[in-house]
Amino acid sequence: MTAGAPSQLGPTGTGAATARLPGVAVPERRRLRTPPFKRAIFIALILGLSVLFIYPFVWLISASLKPQADVFDNRLIPRDFANNYWGDPTPGAPGDEALFSLPEVPVATWFMNSVWIGVLGALLVTFSSALVAFAFAYFRFPGRNVLFGLVLATMMLPGAVTMIPEYLIWNELSQITGEGGRFAALPDIGVNTQYPLWVPNLFASAFYIFLLRQFFMGIPRDLFDAARIDGDSYFSMFRRIALPLAKPALIVAFVFEMQAKWFDLIRPLIYLRDTDLFTLPLGLKTILDQFGTGGGGESDWQIIMAGTVVAVVPMVILFALFQRAFLEGISTSGRKG
Amino acid sequence: MRLWKLGSLVVVASLAVVVAASIASARVEQGARTLDIYGFGSGFGRGDDVANSLTAHAQRQLGANVEYDNPRGGFNDQAFLTMLASRNVPDVMWVDRPRIATYAARGALQPLTSCIRRERINLRQYRKAALREVTYRGQVYALPAFTNQITILVNPTVARQARVNINDIGTANLRKLQRANRRLLQTDGGRVTRIGFDPKIPEFFPLWVKRFGGNIVSRNGMRAQLNSRQAIAALTYTHGLIRAHGGWDRFKAFRDTHNWFGRTNPISENTIGATPFESFIYNVIANNTPTAPLVPKYFQRRGGRPITMFSGNGWAIPRGARDPDLACKWAKHMTSVPAWVSAARNRLEIRRRQNEAFTGLYTANVRADNFILRRVYDPMGRPQFNRAVRLLYNAPRYAFAVPPSPASFELRQAYIDAINRVLAGQQTPRQALNQAQREAQAAINRNRRR
Amino acid sequence: MATTAVNATRPGPPTRARAWFSRFRERETWFAYAFILPWAFGFVVLTAGPMIASFYFSLTNYGVEQIGGFAETEYVGAENYSRLLDDGKIPLALKNTFIYTGMMVPATMVVALALASILLRIGRAGDFFRTVFYLPQITPPVAVGILILVLFNGSYGVVNRALEALPFIEQGPFWTTDPSWIKPSLAIMSVWAVGGTMVIYLAALRGVPQHLYEAAAMDGASAFRRFKDVTLPMISPALFFTFIILTIAGLNTFTEVYTAYFGAGSTGAEEPEAALMYAIYLFRQAFQFFNMGYAAAMAWLFFVIVMAVTLLNILGTRRFVFYQGAQR
What we know:
The complex is a heterotrimer of chains A (about 325), B (about 450) and C (about 325). By secondary structure, chain B is an alpha/beta fold. Chain B has helices spanning about 1-25, 50-60, 75-85, 95-105, 115-120, 130-135, 155-160, 175-185, 205-210, 230-245, 250-255, 280-290, 325-335, 335-355, 365-375, 385-395, 410-425, 430-450, and strands at about 35-40, 65-70, 90-95, 135, 140, 140-145, 150-155, 185-190, 190-195, 270-280, 295, 300, 305-310, 310-315, 400.
């Protein structure tokens, strides 16, 4: 369960989890004959509900634009745009520092960390899972069913059971590669580096193997056999035929893993100590602890809200770009097979 | 296929990074000794002038041939345990004194016995209560630095408005305090609009137990006493002060809107009558609202004898430190009289320039405190802060500290949870503290065996 | 082929095992194993190995002293497991986790089904609103944790402002401080992120053949009967699946709750027992107190509980699931 820390299974993480669905019927576009006046009622109802669902976003963005004293005034349009933590407004005013220039919280660094770890991790896991999935889909080899059963079984395993020994492995690695260790010449890998966040992605992930295998099985075998006759090696077959044809499924895997990385709090929490190494979720938690009321902060909710916007908006953009991948991923990727 | 190319590019790039990084890290460092400092750099407020002066002094004493690695973050248990686990500990660390015994019991710290002997550190310069906090099984494990004593902050404006005699706002006579609390507080349609007397539980629970004549843990730290008669009485009484506001929920919801660190704080806004607070608050208020009237008072035992609870931090050397000698010298100089005096002079200078009150520097070093009060301190015409300073400099005489225990986290967690259950109305004080006693004692027994 | 040749030259009973092993002589087999190598390595090093190690650690006093190498690792037998029984936080955390899951799962399913049913009836516009309802699902859980604190704040949160606008409510609940309201607010917030489940139901509803409704309507079945006798059975696989997955997700809840209520590193006064979820307590024992042995025992208890609940769920609901068409 390389990408399956408990956090990923949290309620908002159910997106990733529910995509494992092996039993959803094929969507079929059909026009339902609902009388117009009834439809009008439904549309009104849905509009009302939409407001309810969108409101927290609007509230969030608007609060991030307010000075400290106004955060909880619940106005959607801030009374005072000048003193917020986005820009560099009048010096000495309540928000005289911009979010991105607060020295204690290097938000820009965290953002970039999240981006590169997300992209790298998602690329690696997509590629390695595709490789493994292709093997399970195309090759006939002894032990295939048993091994695939094992793949499916690891999907069910709660991350908690492997979390502790995995930490100890990384801890051991950081001792032998750290200062004075036997392999000190190697780069420092292990605890308090970012390697534990993406290296497991080299080793494929059960859910994506399952997802991509379904897709590969849908590719007509004749295509591969023809390529074999043309003298293709197994690997070039995978590269030239399987991968291009599976592009939609690969995008789904990529996008889902990107989202999982963008969401993950527990692994950064376990492995990272230095502020500069943090990813955005851990950074956001740090902002909350530092500026909220709980940790002796000064109730600077406007900073916290601005930080939250920084974490939310990129996902919205990713969603806008890959909406099909997200939705199709959820509803069709687990087509019965 | 573009994706394929991109994939191989990533693999090649990461390999290149690995190779480059290994070449870079292969350069052998040489020359000066390095001191790894951990946990120092928070808790001083903006400016950090005190930290800077102390550091400058210690660095002068240690000489030129030392490099310093101080990552400026606060002490964090999880981070420290990670360092222990990876056998990559700092040389010296700045840590809250209640944590010392717990870490000493786990074998994570070095006793300073030989350090004290070698560097001829005079232990008598440190306050007894502070030194007791860092002593575990007869050995000193840290040199104490700051102290943070608790006094009561009274808002005279509110007292006047509520027609309460300031003498009645105090812990000497609990019945009077109860009455004062009821008059100081204000509610509006069930909503709290002004807090009367905030007893600050669970944070200051040990102080309240002391007020009632008890102790939350035995002197040797091995027996929890959370369900003693005095502890139950303390919790029942303080809970009553909060309940008078209409319940914990309403009380807390209002208190959460308070910002003690801003230009609009509960003293300047008159949204609180009185509350016990750590000493640093005077400095904060002097910074933000230097003209706000406030009356500092001792926390008192029955009958009026002052009492205060010590907390603070100190310098400890973890087991496995690479350069304990240097660490020992550092701890010695950071807590020495000249270090504190230079810090105090520097702060006074800064305050003068800003035309703000200097509210003193409170240390675990008796000699430094005396010197600062007599030779450095200057009231600068701010009577309310001057009174606070006099009070605070006298307070250590009446100070006690929670005895160190091998399970101080768990002890603290146990009473915090118990008090939260009582505040939430889930348990009576007796039930809650009985449970806390069981939890805390089990933890002490477990940790003692290690 | 090479295999048959080998079989022919080697006398002896041609067992299945032999045939099975003989396939290892084929190139295809070796290529296949090369292809699955990344997973196999990961499985051994990051899953199977750690599982065995985790069980071993659960029988020892493994903690920070042992990791750091200044105390011996001792075998303590079942001591960690018996400590699970003495630790009052374990039943508390389990209770919290189950209560939360028990509220979150049905609420999510009902709301998701309601939304999906409405979307189904408004035709093309449904696609737009589907996107709208999906948005909370792509909100990072840490952000959700923060939103819980600000939206549900007892005195100035917008939820209570809305409630107090109603004529009969003078003061809304203190969601984030009152122990009896903490879990309901967490559950409400997770219902906000109902999008994924809704999308699944929408797909399932679109798959229900129209003629079944027409037939039912011709028989004079009421809307409720049509829903009960046609819709529910036809989408039962989706309901079944989301039920299982949501339950597992609920039991694993960590990020939102940790963000909202638990501070980093130190133990503070602001950590309500009512929000202590099992995954959080496990995390703290393992990575904040570094009681690895005890935490490993906790993890195994958790593993057994999650498996048992999942199995019970599957057994308990399977008979209600109706598979349309080809059924294995």
